[in-house]
Write a structure and sequence with these properties.
Blueprint lengths: L6 H31 L5 H11 L2 H14 L2 H24 L3 H29 L5 H29 L1 H21 L5 H4 L12 H17 L1 H32 L4 H26 L7 H19 L3 H29 L5 H26 L8 H45 L1 H4 L2
Length: 433
C-alpha cells in the first residue's frame, strides 16, 4: 500500500497510538483500583472518568486555535513531554495515597491531552492526498482496534500483577515513545504552519476569540459538516456510557467476583468487533456512499444496545458487544474519510478542536447523570441501556433524513469547482481574462 511509503504518516500514526495507550491503560487500571478500594462508592469510578472529560470545558475554545496558529508538530510533541512529567507526579500522588491529589493530576493531564489530537489530526491531513483519507481512516481504526483489544486487557493484567504503579509506569513510557516518534518526523512547513508564522505576542484573548468564532461560523455555514459534528455529540453519550456501564454490569449483575477480567473481555470483544468492522469497511468503502456506511450501522447498533439491557448471560452480552463493534467500524471509517475532504486545511485544527469538546461535554453529562441516578434513583442498569439505545435510534433516523440530500449537494458543488478549474486551464479565452 502506497500510504505505508509515507514515513511521516507511519510515525504519526504510531505516535497517536502510543499516546492513546499512555492514557487508556493507566485510566483503566485506576478504575479497577477505585472499585477495589471503594467498592461501596461506585461514584468514585465515575468521578475518575469525569476527570478525563471535564477539562474540555476549560480549554475547548483554545485547542483548535493553538493547532491552527502554532507549529502543529511542536504542539503534539510537547503535549507528550508534559504528560510524561505529570505522570511522574501521578506516581507520587498514588504513593502518598492522596486520592484528591490523584484526581487533580488526572484533571491537568487530561487538559493537556486535549491539545494533542487536533494538532496530530491536522498534521496527518497535511501529509496525505484526498484519495488516501479513507484509507488512512481505515488503517487508524484497525490499529486502534488492536490496541483496544490488548490495551485494556493489559491494563487489567498489570493491575492484577504489579498493581496501579505498574500501569502508571506504562503510561510514562508510552508518552516518551510518542514524543520521540513525533520529533523524528520530517514534515514540511506548509503542513506544520498552514496559516503562516504566528508569534506569542499576537496570541491574546481578542485573537483567540476571533479564531474561535471563525471555526464556529465555518461549521455552521457548511450544513454537511454541521450535521457530522452534531453526530460526534451523540457519540460522546455512547462513549460516556460504555466507559463505565459494562464495568458496572459485570460488578453488580453478571460477574461480581471476576468483574475485572470480564470488563476487559468487554473491551476485547468490542475491539475485535471494531477490527472486523474496520476490515470490512475498508474493503467496501469505495462501493458505498459515506452516509450509507453510517445510517444503517447506527440503526443496527441502536437495536443491539436494547438487547444489552435484556441479556443476563455474560457470553451473550459479549457476543452482542462484538457485533456492535463490527457496526461501529464502518461508521468511523466513513467519518474519518469524509471530514478531511470537506474541511479546509487551514481550519482543520479549529474544526477538530470542536469535535472533542462536543464529545467530552456529552460524555461528562452522561457520566454525571449516571453518578446521580445509579443506584439511588435507577436501581437497575438495564434502563440506562434502554435510554442510550433510544438516543442512538433517533440519531439514525435523523441521519437517514438529512445525509443523503446534503451528500448529493456536496458532490454537485465539488463537480462544479472541478469543471470550473478545468475550463480555466483549457479555455484560452478564460485564461486571457
Amino acid at each position: 500500500m502506497k500510504i505505508f511509503r509515507n514515513r511521516n504518516f507511519v510515525k504519526l500514526f504510531f505516535a497517536a497510538l502510543f499516546s492513546q495507550m499512555g492514557t487508556t491503560i493507566g485510566n483503566m487500571a485506576f478504575a479497577f483500583y477505585l472499585l477495589d478500594h471503594f467498592s461501596h462508592q461506585p461514584a468514585y469510578a465515575t468521578i475518575a472518568e469525569l476527570m478525563y472529560s471535564l477539562p474540555t470545558v476549560l480549554v475547548f475554545f483554545i485547542v483548535g486555535v493553538v493547532a491552527d496558529r502554532f507549529d502543529r508538530k511542536k504542539v503534539a510533541e510537547n503535549c507528550d513531554w508534559i504528560r510524561a512529567g505529570l505522570t511522574v507526579l501521578l506516581f507520587g500522588a498514588l504513593y502518598l495515597n492522596s486520592i484528591p491529589l490523584v484526581f487533580l493530576v488526572l484533571f491537568i493531564r487530561s487538559s493537556v491531552t486535549k491539545f494533542f489530537f487536533p494538532a496530530e489530526n491536522s498534521l496527518v491531513q497535511g501529509i496525505l492526498n484526498k484519495e488516501q483519507y479513507a484509507q488512512a481512516a481505515g488503517l487508524n481504526q484497525m490499529l486502534f482496534s488492536i490496541f483496544m483489544v490488548f490495551g485494556v486487557g493489559i491494563g487489567a493484567a498489570i493491575y492484577k500483577t504489579i498493581g496501579i504503579h505498574g500501569a502508571v509506569l506504562v503510561d510514562f513510557v508510552s508518552f516518551i515513545i510518542s514524543a520521540l516518534l513525533i520529533r523524528s518526523c520530517k514534515i514540511p512547513q506548509s503542513a506544520r504552519l498552514p496559516n503562516g508564522t504566528f508569534k506569542w505576542k499576537d496570541f491574546n484573548i481578542k485573537s483567540t476569540f476571533h479564531d474561535f468564532k471563525a471555526g464556529i461560523l465555518y461549521i455552521i455555514k457548511n450544513r454537511l459538516l454541521a450535521v457530522l459534528v452534531f453526530g460526534f455529540f451523540i457519540f460522546g453519550i455512547v462513549n460516556g456510557a460504555f466507559s463505565i456501564l459494562p464495568m458496572f454490569t459485570m460488578k453488580y449483575e453478571l460477574s461480581p467476583d471476576n468483574y475485572e477480567w470480564y470488563a476487559s473481555f468487554f473491551a476485547i470483544s468490542l475491539g475485535f468487533g471494531l477490527l472486523t468492522g474496520s476490515g470490512i469497511g475498508t474493503l467496501i468503502a469505495s462501493k458505498f456512499k459515506p452516509y450509507q456506511l453510517m445510517v444503517y450501522p447506527i440503526f443496527i447498533t441502536s437495536l443491539l444496545i436494547f438487547l444489552l439491557g435484556y441479556t443476563n448471560k455474560v457470553s451473550i452480552f459479549l457476543v452482542i458487544v462484538f457485533i456492535i463493534g463490527t457496526c461501529l467500524g464502518p461508521i468511523n471509517i466513513a467519518i474519518g474519510g469524509w471530514m478531511p475532504k470537506i474541511v479546509h486545511p487551514k481550519l482543520m485544527g479549529r474544526v477538530s478542536g470542536w469535535i472533542d469538546p462536543l464529545m467530552m461535554f456529552a460524555q461528562s453529562v452522561t457520566l454525571g447523570l449516571i453518578a446521580l441516578l445509579f443506584p439511588k434513583i435507577i436501581e437497575k442498569i438495564d434502563y440506562l441501556y434502554y435510554g442510550m439505545a433510544l438516543i442512538i435510534l433517533i440519531v439514525s433516523l435523523f441521519y437517514a433524513l438529512t445525509l443523503p440530500k446534503l451528500s448529493q449537494a456536496f458532490e454537485e458543488k465539488e463537480k462544479r469547482i472541478y469543471n470550473n478549474r478545468r475550463a480555466t486551464k483549457t479555455d484560452p479565452k478564460i485564461n486571457s481574462l
